[in-house]
């Protein structure tokens, strides 16, 4: 499909630019532009279709905070004067909530590789070969260094070790369920679980949660957020009686929806469900995690968990 | 009730005459009516009218009452006639005392959650290709938006502009689906 197939027919007139359409929606056309635009809009299906799509784009840009401050003000003062646009904005906000976390986690999968490829010009065969040769040289050079000059290697290793040690001691907050009976895993070194090795987003804090009937029923585990808003908070939900797959929803204690994840499964080795929440969506306060089981299209709540962010 | 609403309540036969004038085929007449209504609201909102919907209803009322007089003589695009009436109504609106904008509905947690649930349902109705496209299109944050969309367009083998139009059309479908879903929830 070429671009021509998706261009709108503006009825033979000189088409208005996307920027002009945007200014119309924000009430920013000049006194001479406005009547001309209105005349065309009322009769021209092509322009109307473009205006409709521009409405969605503008609502999305507002929800995703891509508008400048003056445009945000115009959006609130002019664009939202039509009630259907308030519905558009509600859907834009839902799309933002749905995909903003995906952006943090999955965009790396799609973007990092091409970025590196572009950086090194690997799309060209000659550069690809040169890059391969360079890697081989580095590998052989390192091997030669290790075999022939072990003293230098030891010196490098000694210099690096003190720098690494603070990273190892990064606190990792874990609240294990009280009914866990086998503490061997705490003392016996074991290989890292598979999900930790493959996770694309850094887990900054981990907290184990057990089901509770109400927020007052037991003391809520506390979470200390990492500095900055990067990373995820991993909520390890103790396995409920009902089988999955599950949907987990993060709500404020007042019941406002914040974040959700679908198709969650139990990690059988720990009898827990990992629910990763972007750290930036959390602030100080009490939170409710509602775990549901999707059964034949209907959703059944199976457990609630509570925690507080300090 | 606003001054716009006080003026006249459209009778069914007047409305039928209006639709008949717009198009002899009732289905097409309905579509034309909706199209003109939506465009009038858009224009009035662009002019900064705080009650664009109500003024549009008033415009339609006035046109409907004049249809008997003009239907045999009027030549040209009927939508243009609405535009002329709109200018009169807007002129009168500007002379009226300032009408306060109704308070915006509070986006409570329940409504928000229902919208999210409907979004999930509607995403599930999309084809794999459309879902993948929309997920990646919206995954771009504001800094990476342009770069990422160029890359997505390249991967789909289309230009960035075609990607934008396709994604927005899927967005349009999602909007319609979600509104329908929310109405079902209310019922």
Q: What can you see in these coordinates?
A:
The complex is a heterodimer of chains A (310) and B (187). In chain A, 44% of the residues lie in helices and 20% in strands. With 310 residues, chain A is an alpha+beta fold. Chain A has three domains: 3-94, no CATH class; 125-168, no CATH class; 184-309, Immunoglobulin-like, CATH 2.60.40. In chain A, a hairpin with a 4-residue loop joins strand 6 (266-267) and strand 7 (272-278). The longest helix of chain A has 37 residues, at 83-119. Chain B has 187 residues and is mainly α. Chain B folds into two domains: 3-95; 109-186. Chain B contains nine helices and no strands. Chain B has helices at residues 3-6, 12-22, 26-46, 52-70, 78-95, 109-125, 128-139, 145-156, 160-186. Residues 1-7 of chain B have low confidence and may be disordered. The chains are: A alpha+beta (310), B mainly alpha (187). The interface between A and B is large, with 62 and 64 residues.
Strand count, sense and barrel status of the largest sheet of chain B are: none
Query: What structural class results from the helix and strand content of chain B?
Result: mainly alpha
Overall structural class of chain A, as computed from helix and strand content, comes to: alpha+beta
Biggest interface, chains and residues, is: A-B, 62 and 64 residues
The rounded Rg of chain A comes to 27 Å
DSSP helix fraction of chain A: 40-55%
If you compute it from the alpha carbons, what radius of gyration of chain B comes out, rounded to the nearest whole angstrom? 21 Å
The ordered H/E elements of chain B are: HHHHHHHHH
List keywords for this structure.
heterodimer, A: 310 residues, alpha+beta, four-stranded mixed beta sheet, 9 helices, B: 187 residues, disordered N terminus
């Amino acid at each position: 499909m070429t671009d021509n197939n998706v261009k709108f027919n503006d009825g033979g007139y000189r088409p208005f630019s996307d920027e002009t359409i945007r200014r119309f929606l924000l009430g920013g056309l000049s006194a001479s532009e406005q009547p001309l635009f209105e005349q065309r809009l009322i009769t021209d299906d092509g322009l109307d279709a473009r205006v409709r799509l521009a409405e969605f784009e503008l609502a999305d840009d507002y929800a995703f905070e891509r508008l400048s401050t003056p445009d945000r003000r115009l959006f609130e003062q002019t664009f939202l004067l039509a009630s259907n646009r308030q519905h558009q904005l509600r859907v834009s906000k839902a799309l933002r909530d749905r995909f903003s976390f995906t952006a943090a986690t999955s965009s790396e999968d799609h973007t990092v590789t091409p970025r590196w490829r572009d950086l090194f010009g690997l799309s060209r065969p000659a550069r690809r070969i040169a890059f391969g040769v360079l890697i081989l040289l580095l590998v052989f050079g390192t091997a030669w260094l290790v075999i022939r000059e072990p003293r230098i290697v030891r010196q490098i290793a000694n210099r690096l070790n003190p720098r690494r040690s603070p990273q190892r001691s990064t606190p990792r907050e874990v609240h294990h369920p009280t009914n866990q009976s086998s503490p061997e895993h705490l003392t016996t070194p074991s290989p890292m679980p598979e999900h930790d090795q493959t996770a694309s987003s850094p887990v900054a804090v981990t907290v184990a949660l057990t089901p509770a009937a109400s927020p007052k029923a037991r003391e809520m585990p506390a979470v200390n957020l990492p500095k900055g808003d990067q990373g995820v908070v991993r909520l390890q939900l103790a396995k409920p009686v009902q089988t999955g797959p599950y949907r987990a929803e993060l709500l404020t204690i007042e019941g406002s929806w914040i974040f959700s994840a679908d198709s969650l499964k139990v990690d059988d080795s720990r009898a827990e469900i990992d629910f990763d929440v972007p750290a930036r969506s959390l602030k100080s306060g009490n939170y409710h995690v509602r775990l549901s089981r999707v059964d034949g299209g209907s959703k059944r709540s199976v457990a609630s968990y509570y925690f507080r962010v300090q | 009730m606003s001054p716009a609403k006080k003026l006249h309540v459209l009778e069914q036969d007047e409305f039928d005459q209006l639709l008949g004038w717009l198009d002899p085929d009732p289905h097409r007449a309905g579509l034309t009516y909706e199209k003109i209504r939506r465009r009038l609201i858009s224009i009035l909102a662009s002019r900064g009218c705080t009650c664009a919907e109500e003024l549009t209803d008033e415009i339609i009322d006035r046109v409907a009452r004049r249809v008997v007089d003009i239907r045999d003589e009027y030549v040209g695009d009927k939508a243009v006639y609405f535009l002329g009436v709109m200018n009169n109504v807007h002129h009168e609106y500007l002379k009226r005392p300032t009408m306060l904008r109704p308070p915006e509905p509070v986006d409570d947690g329940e409504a928000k959650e229902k919208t999210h649930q409907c979004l999930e349902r509607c995403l599930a109705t999309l084809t794999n290709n459309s879902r993948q496209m929309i997920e990646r299109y919206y995954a771009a944050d504001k800094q990476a938006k342009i770069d990422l969309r160029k890359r997505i367009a390249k991967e789909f083998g289309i230009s960035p502009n075609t990607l934008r139009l396709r994604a927005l059309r899927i967005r349009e479908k999602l909007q319609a689906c979600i509104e329908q879903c929310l109405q079902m929830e209310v019922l």
